[in-house]
Specification:
The complex is a heterodimer of chains A (387) and B (788).
Chain A lengths: L1 H26 L3 E7 L6 H20 L8 E7 L4 H14 L4 E2 L5 H14 L3 E3 L14 E3 L9 H9 L4 E7 L2 H16 L3 E8 L6 H11 L3 E5 L2 H14 L5 E4 L8 H5 L7 E4 L12 H12 L5 H20 L4 H10 L1 E4 L2 E4 L12 E6 L2 E6 L11
Parallel strand pairs in A: 1-2, 1-3, 4-5, 6-7, 6-8, 8-9, 9-10
Antiparallel strand pairs in A: 10-13, 11-12, 13-14
Chain B lengths: L11 H60 L6 H17 L7 E7 L3 E5 L19 E5 L2 E10 L4 E8 H53 L13 H18 L1 H23 L4 E6 L2 E5 L1 H7 L3 H6 L2 H4 L5 H9 L10 E8 L5 E13 L2 E10 L1 H54 L7 H24 L8 E3 L1 H9 L2 H9 L3 E7 L5 E4 L1 H17 L5 E12 L1 H6 L9 E9 L7 H4 L20 H11 L3 E7 L3 E11 L20 E5 L3 H13 L3 E5 L2 H11 L4 E5 L8 H11 L5 E5 L5 H9 L3 E4 L4 H13 L8 E3 L2
Parallel strand pairs in B: 12-14, 18-19, 18-20, 20-21, 21-22, 22-23
Antiparallel strand pairs in B: 1-2, 1-5, 3-4, 4-5, 6-7, 6-10, 8-9, 9-10, 11-13, 13-17, 14-15, 15-17, 16-17
Helix pairs in contact in B: 1-2, 1-3, 3-4, 4-5, 10-11, 10-18, 11-17, 12-14, 14-17, 19-20, 20-21
Classes of the chains: A alpha/beta (387), B alpha+beta (788).
């Protein structure tokens, strides 16, 4: 009798626990995080990489139980590379879809558009794909992951100058990111004692590039730095191949960091420099970096770029902030991020009072024997630069 | 026998180690040559790498500081930048402590030194290019340096690393010395190791083996008993086996050795002491020659072994030796060869060798084993014997001829006695102008010519009576040149001029006037007859001293004794004598002339016989078409001529003494009686020796006995004279003979019949001889011969 009584009691408790946990599970509302990606347009390729980084983080965080006991759900919309669409989509996600958090799109113009919406709606925004000088106090709770474009090629200029080269030509697309990069590069070139033999901008598109390359050929500088998005970069490489002309040093933005760059450009890719926010090199000792590279490859079937890494790292920072704040409060999270000095898979994260990234510095890569090598800074150097 | 220590160069250890040393030395030199450069290059590279490393490290420090500034976004913060500069300078200069002997300098804006690891460095930097330099040379603090620099653009710095030249080259010099030292040490170590190993493993066992072998030589049969399994051990084992075998066979070996020694001694005794010349000839050279061979050659053994055999052979016989002895190749079925040939001694003497040679094999090659004897004496004896035989044959020939001639002459002389004697008697009685005289004179002349021929025959067979009297050739020649015979000859040969060149004080000679005159006449006549085209025939006389050297140069066929000679030379410019005739001109009856008085074939034999009778020599030099020259050498004497005998007429020969004429030929007896009776002598005649003896016994002695020598069938003149002087010692006698040069004539003369007259005698000669002998004081005069 006594035994039967305790057995019944045990069975009742067991069923009660199963019932409670099952109810809670069924009742946990996902934390919805909205963002736009460009599935078409000139930002499409880096934007896809950004998207892959977001998705891997979503997978990782949900595999570990989500955040605040809730699963995480990414809501991604295609902005088609349009700033207007970005504005409307972010407005839609905040006001209509009531997403808990938003992530920034790829590209400085699109990020700026998104920042306008989030500032207006009291949301914080962590930019994982913008380098233009957007952090001028205009947007509230707006933070950048990347070093500004003006610092992209400091390392390359240092390499050029220290190896006795004298002149540099700077050609850039007339866009915020590229202009910011070109101006910053121009200033640093003069600071390193280099002669800026050519400084030209062009309107987006391939139309002006042949003429500009002719002009570069006439000036024949020691170094050409082209600030552009991938399509123009590939086109310029084709032009140099056709012209059978190539300055001794060529530095390209964005495209040269793609894993497929060498595949797409062939032997012309050999020796080309690029500026990267991060490189998936096993020798880079950032926490979780190796695991990220490995998981990303398993997840997507291709190696990550700094865009993917930055997207994943941005999500890591948000995750860290939510866990610290145990809340989805926009201001609490924004304050925490603004005061954070930490290391992610892509390196140090530290912002100034305007939200501009100050802890992270870009690296200079060079394609050597079909492989990307980090040639600057010295602390992360995987190979000596070849001029 | 192992005697004494080996010469150093002969020692195996050295002969093996020296090549190793040479190879090692070569390897060392090559190693030094090939190693030095890479080592120096390595050190230079190392030092240059350190220099580059220093500047690279400097750049790295600067880059780190720049990275700091960039990371903090403080690159525009002046205070921060200054701080970073200061830190960079300190960190750069601190690199010096990490790299030996390398100093660093930081130069800003190409001319300002902002930092130096060496305090108060004095250096005026030249323009430094941007970028990275190569290793360059400069002078800092007055000292040459090697430097490298890199450019750091952020602060416009040149990070310079440098090293003083001494510190740069110091390690190189040290490296060189180390290379040399290491190579030399390795060489010495290897050599010493090889030497010690060789000494221990090879040399010492070898010494033991040598010592043991020496012991065997001294009769000690000690085994080595080396316990080793290598080759030396095998040798030692074999040696011990040999020793054991030697011990076992010691007696047998000693017996064999004894036999060998005995055989060797026999061989040496046989070969070295052999009177025969024993030699071995291989490849045209002597490879062995016994003592006798060496002795006869006059060379030393070494000289002989260095010579070719043909050098040893007389040039005229080299072909023979080359073909018959040296030319044997082994292909021919040759048993032995036997040859005589001449060889040359070291002193240049030509000698004869008789050699028997048989081919054999020696050391795998054909060798001629020669057994030879020096037969020089035999060859000379043989030649002399041949000469003697020739002379004997000639003598026998002449003897036979002489016997015939003697017999004929005897008979002819007897026959001619009347022919020669009676015309004299008739002419005495027939007055001048009587027509009968012209018939008698040819008879007289013919008789005299016949008698002359008989005398020539006798001279030729050397049976003529020779009177050795002192003569002077000049007088004889003078007499001949004034003789009717010469005048007659001149008439027959008018185109021939006769010139006489006679030495004034010509030495006298001992000889026969008649024969010498005959000789001169014959030679002059021959010269004239040999000059059909005319020319000059010269008669010369001269004194000459012939020494050994001169004698050798004279072509007289025999050696002339050294001494004074009177030389008679008769030369013509005629046709000369062909060579083939020269050897025959002295043969009897050999003539190229028409037989007759001037062509009897007796002229030159008479000349030769006369010269030989006078112990003289003839030299003939004749060139066909140019003439002939005869030189007759007569031994000279310094005796003076006796006083000139005055010519006597028949009246001076008259006498009244009693004479006994002994002759078996009646005509001779009658002629003599008529001649001598006509001069007043009392002449008795007997036909034989026996009757002469009886005449003495019956009638007593006579004043003079005239003896014929040959009286058949009774006793001859000698025996007759012996018997007579036995009856009456000192009986004067003269000999009347057909020929004078016989032993029995000379014996008769020795007994006392001094004068010999040759039949057929003339009145003048007979009367002269009779009177002379009758007038001669006993013992005053030697025997003489007078011819009709």
């Amino acid at each position: 009798m006594f035994c039967s009584h305790y057995a019944n009691l045990f069975m009742m408790c067991f069923y009660l626990i199963l019932l409670v946990t099952g109810v809670f599970a069924e009742q946990a509302v996902p934390i919805r995080i909205g963002a736009t990606v460009s599935l078409e347009g000139k930002y499409a390729e880096p934007s896809r990489m950004l998207q892959d980084g977001f998705r891997l983080w979503e997978k990782h965080v949900n595999e570990t139980g989500g955040l605040l006991g809730r699963p995480v759900e990414l809501i991604l919309h295609d902005d088609k590379g349009s700033e207007e669409l970005v504005r409307s989509l972010y407005e839609q996600m905040i006001t209509e879809e009531k997403v808990d958090l938003v992530l920034a799109p790829y590209g400085s113009p699109l990020t700026k558009a998104a920042a306008e919406v989030t500032t207006r709606n009291g949301y914080f925004l962590l930019a994982c794909g913008a380098s233009a000088n957007l952090w001028n106090g205009r947007f509230k709770n707006f933070y950048g992951m990347w070093a500004p474009g003006s610092r992209y090629f400091i390392g390359l200029l240092d390499i050029i100058a220290s190896n006795g080269l004298n002149s540099v030509a700077i050609v850039y697309e007339n866009s915020p990111f590229c202009a910011d990069l070109a101006n910053g590069t121009h200033g640093w070139a003069r600071r390193f004692g280099l002669e800026v033999a050519l400084f030209r901008s062009y309107e987006s598109g391939k139309r002006e590039l042949p003429r500009l390359l002719d002009e570069v050929q006439r000036v024949n500088p020691d170094c050409l730095i082209l600030a552009s998005y991938p399509e123009d970069s590939y086109f310029t490489v084709e032009l140099m191949k056709d012209h059978k002309y190539r300055p001794r040093v060529v530095g390209l933005t964005i495209a040269s960091t793609y894993p497929d760059f060498y595949l797409n450009s062939g032997s012309m890719a050999e020796g080309i420099f690029g500026s990267s926010q991060w490189e998936p090199d096993e020798r880079i000792p950032f926490p979780g970096s190796q695991r990220f590279v490995s998981d990303f490859f398993q997840f997507t079937g291709k190696p990550p770029t700094y865009h993917s890494g930055s997207a994943y790292a941005g999500c890591q920072i948000i995750e860290k902030a939510i866990r610290h704040c145990q809340s989805l409060d926009q201001n609490k999270i924004a304050d925490f991020i603004g005061s954070l000095d930490t290391a992610t898979v892509v390196g140090r994260f530290k912002v100034d009072h305007d939200g501009s990234q100050t802890g992270h510095n870009p690296v200079i890569i060079q394609w050597q024997n079909g492989k990307k090598e980090i040639v600057f800074p010295l602390s992360m150097q995987t190979a000596q630069p070849r001029l | 026998m192992f005697q004494g220590r080996l010469a150093a160069r002969n020692r195996v250890v050295l002969s093996m180690i020296l090549p190793i040393l040479l190879v090692g030395l070569t390897i060392t030199v090559v190693s030094v040559y090939f190693w030095t450069k890479p080592v120096i290059s390595f050190i230079e590279k190392h030092t240059e790498t350190e220099l580059e490393l220093a500047s690279d490290m400097g750049i790295q420090k600067c880059e780190e500081r720049l990275d700091d500034l960039l990371s903090l976004r403080l690159e525009n913060d002046h205070e921060m930048v200054e701080s970073a500069r200061t830190a960079a300078i300190q960190q750069v200069l601190r690199i010096q402590g990490k790299l030996d002997n390398i100093h660093l300098i930081i130069v800003e804006d190409n001319n300002t030194i902002v930092g130096s690891s060496v305090p108060e460095v004095k250096w005026e930097p030249s323009h430094l290019a941007r970028g990275k330099s190569s290793i360059i040379r400069d002078v800092i603090d007055g000292s040459p340096v090697r430097m490298h620099y890199r450019y750091f653009p952020f602060w416009n710095w040149h990070i310079i690393s440098y090293i003083h030249e001494d510190n740069y080259t110091g390690p190189i010099d040290l490296a060189k010395r180390m290379v040399y030292l290491v190579c030399l040490s390795v060489l010495l170590l290897v050599t010493a190791t090889v030497f010690l190993l060789f000494e221990d493993l090879v040399n010492k066992p070898l010494k033991r083996i040598i010592h043991a072998a020496e012991g065997i030589a001294q009769g000690r049969y000690n085994k080595l008993k080396l316990q080793r399994q290598d080759e030396i051990g095998q040798v030692a084992q074999a040696f011990d086996t040999m020793v054991q075998s030697l011990e076992e066979d010691k007696d047998w070996i000693q017996a064999i050795m004894s036999k060998l020694k005995e055989s060797e001694e026999r061989y040496r005794l046989l070969t070295e002491n052999s009177l025969a010349n024993i030699m071995m000839i291989q490849d045209g050279r002597f490879i062995y020659a016994n003592r006798a061979t060496i002795a006869v050659s006059g060379y030393s053994a070494d000289e002989l072994y260095r010579m070719e055999v043909l050098e040893f052979v007389h040039p005229d016989d080299r072909e023979l030796v080359r073909e018959r002895i040296l030319g044997w190749t082994g292909d021919e079925d040759l048993v032995a060869v036997h040859h005589e040939f001449r060889y040359l001694t070291k002193q240049g003497e030509t000698r004869w060798l008789e050699m028997m040679a048989v081919p054999s094999l020696y050391k795998g090659k054909t060798v001629m084993l020669g057994h030879a004897m020096d037969i020089t004496d035999r060859v000379i004896a043989r030649a002399e014997q041949a000469e003697l035989e020739k002379k004997l044959q000639q003598a026998q020939k002449m003897e036979a001829i002489g016997a015939v001639v003697g017999a004929v002459a005897h008979d002819l002389n007897n026959i001619l006695a009347g022919v020669v004697g009676y015309p004299d008697l008739l002419l005495l009685q027939i007055p001048e102008g009587n027509p009968l005289r012209k018939y008698i004179l040819p008879i007289q002349e013919s008789g005299q010519r016949a008698a002359a021929i008989v005398q020539d025959l006798l001279t030729m067979v050397r049976k003529g009576v020779v009177v050795k009297e002192l003569l002077n050739l000049n007088s004889i020649i003078d007499g001949y040149l004034r003789s009717p015979e010469f005048e007659k000859m001149k008439k027959l040969h008018p185109s021939v001029a006769i010139e006489a060149n006679l030495q004034a004080d010509l030495f006298n000679i001992c000889g026969s006037l008649i024969h010498l005159r005959k000789t001169i006449a014959n030679l002059v006549l021959n010269a004239a007859e040999a000059s059909p085209e005319g020319g000059v025939t010269r008669i010369e006389t001269l004194n000459r001293y012939i020494d050994t050297a001169t004698a050798a140069s004279l072509e007289v066929g025999v050696s002339i004794p050294e001494g004074e000679y009177t030389v008679l030379c008769i030369s013509d410019q005629g046709v000369g004598i062909p060579k083939e005739d020269l050897a025959r001109i002295f043969e009897p009856f050999y003539t190229k002339k028409v037989m007759g008085r001037s062509g009897t074939g007796l002229g030159m034999p008479v000349v030769l016989s006369t010269v030989q009778d006078h112990a003289g020599y003839i030299s003939i030099h004749s060139v066909e078409g140019q003439g002939t020259r005869f030189e007759l050498y007569f031994p000279a004497t310094r005796e003076n001529l006796p006083e000139q005998q005055t010519d006597s007429s028949l009246e001076t020969y008259r006498g009244s003494e009693t004479l006994l004429i002994v002759d078996d030929v009646k005509e001779q007896r009658e002629v003599a009686r008529e001649m001598l009776g006509g001069l007043g002598y009392k002449v008795n005649l007997v036909p034989s020796g026996e009757e002469a003896v009886e005449f003495f016994k019956k009638n007593g002695p006579v004043d003079l006995l005239i003896l014929d020598m040959i009286m058949d069938p009774g006793i001859d003149g000698l025996e007759t004279y012996r018997r007579i002087i036995a009856l009456r010692p000192g009986q004067k006698a003269i000999i009347a003979s057909g020929y004078s040069e016989t032993e029995r004539v000379r014996e008769t003369q020795r007994l006392g019949a001094h004068t010999c007259i040759v039949k057929p005698f003339t009145l003048d000669k007979l009367a002269s001889a009779v009177r002379k002998e009758l007038d001669r004081q006993a013992g005053r005069s030697a025997g003489t011969v007078s011819k009709a």
